[in-house]
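Open question from group meeting: does this chain pack into something compact, or does most of it stay loose? Before anyone orders reagents, we agreed to write out a predicted structure and look at it together. Recording both the input and the output here so the notebook holds the full record.
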Amino acid sequence: MQPTVMLKLQIFKALFVFFILLTVGTLFAQQDSVLVFSKTKGFRHQNITKGVKTIIDLGKENNFIVTATEDASLFTTESLGKYKVVIFLNTTGDILGLEAQAAFENYISQGGGFVGIHSASDTEHDWAWYGRMVGAYFLDHPAICEAKLKVIDTTHLSTQMLPIEWVRTDEWYNFKNLNPDVNVLITLDESSYQGGSNGAHHPIAWYHTIGDGRIFYTGLGHTLESWDEPLFRQHLLGGINYARGKENKEDWLEYDSNKFSIQYPSDWQLDTSKTMGIDVILMSELEGFQDNFRENVNVLVQDLAGTNIGLTEFATISEQQVETLITDSSIEYSMKEEGPAGEFHRVIYTGKQGIYNLKCEQYYFVKNERAYVLTFTAPVEKFDEYVEKAELIMDSFDFK
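Structure tokens returned:
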């Protein structure tokens, strides 16, 4: 492809952003904050340290920052307001005072997310609200053993990657005071092991809401080995993302070309005109879209009247060719990440295009000696409204 002069300038602009990335280090804007709480007043699991490290690693890979603590004094309205999600990692016993309990109830009802892992259900047995929120209380368990799990909801973010029948080894809880209003994701097949007492319907992972708060619980995660299992880690990540308010991809559509595939919600519209070498443009709003603008400005494929995601392919350009044409832009966040094509750069920046104030989140890939830019663009005032869904779309992008 022979890019036009304008296209070259835009390519230079995109590449300059990424070379700035290499020199300014990692900034941490636009990231959710997650609190991991692992205080115990009863049995203490040996895997807590490993669990904390695993969640920190998941955060680095999936754009959330982790604070790990066993300090219950952080459970105030002011402190909890800093966090998108609170994770109870193998907590046990009576760990929060009355004022902390009231602050946590308010946090959940106002839209805070909660993730309970394994013995989070063996926590606060005398706090009725917590029992309903976490979904059940621990009763007892047999010895660690292999069992068959049945995934009964395959559409949730925490189960989409799991086999329908999942055989694994862990410590399997029996529960009391099961909340009938939770949405069960996974059950245990009690015929596959000895010691189950919940019967034919033995839930082991579920989700529900309280007010505006999203709650996810998994009974998995007792053994040290669990935290090395890719499927368990993905299951947990899906639960965290659900609690963060991420979108479920149920009923999404898929565009499949000979080079890549990408998933997108049915309320976004697809344009495959391949103008200027562009393979796909996804637009959430078409009002005011200008064809002449699309023909004259590309790499970013900006629909200035709405929001969109564009993909552009072009020949790799050397660092020596980069020109400093982004003086009116400001980087807010930058990171190297691992993606389907290997390592890629991710950056968020703001800038002006004519009279418009734009904000862009951009992924930059290099594969088979070709460069690709995948960009979500929106007016600044619309960016936060669309960015979570846009990130899911961009994360679904897969080279063949």
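Observations to bring back to the group:
The first helix runs from residue 5 to 24.
Helices lie at 5-24, 48-62, 77-80, 98-109, 128-134, 230-244, 291-296, 380-395.
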